[in-house]
Amino acid sequence: PIYSDVHALQANVEANERFGLIELQGGKYTDDVPLVSAEAVLDDAYYTAQIYPLVYKGYPLEGKFTVDRDVKGLGLPPKKAIDILTWYPMYLEHNISHSLMAIRLPYRYYLPYHYKKDFTRIQYKVVNAYLQQPSLYAGKVQQYNHIINGVFPSIPTGDYKVRLQYTLPGGIKGSNQVFKYNNPF
User: Could you give the CA distance from residue 135 to residue 75 in angstroms, rounded to a whole number?
Assistant: First the structure.
């Protein structure tokens, strides 16, 4: 849990080979570019039926009703919001024998946090525009009702896909695999 309505997903896997620092953070021979990248596959019902219509459909509603972040890094929607667990690289360097290292995937599905952040920023801007210039936005209240009166939905039970892409130095694409995070709650 991050907030009462926002959760990040982590995954335990069967004991296997650990990821390396070069795969997660890059190094001098990769120009500090990680060999593995992670990106969400946005075909789950949470995104398609709840988040997309609430936050991203028709984005931007108007030029000033935008998110307050650089969309190049995470994307819009934020499908690259798959974080590396902060402790994982440190344990790789200093405590590689820790039991979690063998069973914990080093990536965290962090999209709901950014969905909520995007939603609240857009909602704030729409509501304030209406309150500051009610005559200008009076005709648009119905058009923006889903944002003005919208309630951010919690991530429901289900599977959430992430594509892990292995890329060699020089941008040469290698193998990729889709991993499913499961929210049991």
Answer: 34
* Residues in CB range of 121: below 8 A, 6 or more apart: 66, 67, 68
pLDDT in tens, 128-172: 998 888 888 777 888 899 999 999 999 999 999 999 999 999 899
With a cut of 70, which residues of the chain have pLDDT below it? none
**What distance in Å separates the CA atoms of residue 165 and residue 62, rounded to the nearest whole number?**
35
- Around 65, how many Cα atoms within 13 Å sit in the side-chain half-sphere? 23
Q: Which two tokens stand for residue 120?
A: 């609240």
**Residue 180 DSSP one-character state:** E
Is residue 175 within 8 A of residue 166, CB to CB? The reply is yes
What does each C-alpha distance from 101 to 74, 91, 121, 131, 161 come to in angstroms?
26, 8, 37, 52, 22
Distance of alpha carbon 105 from alpha carbon 147, whole angstroms? 35
Q: How many helices (H) and strands (E) does the chain have?
A: 8, 5
The answer to whether 150 touches 123, Cβ cutoff 8 Å, is yes
For the chain, what is the radius of gyration of the CA atoms? Answer: 19
pTM: 0.91
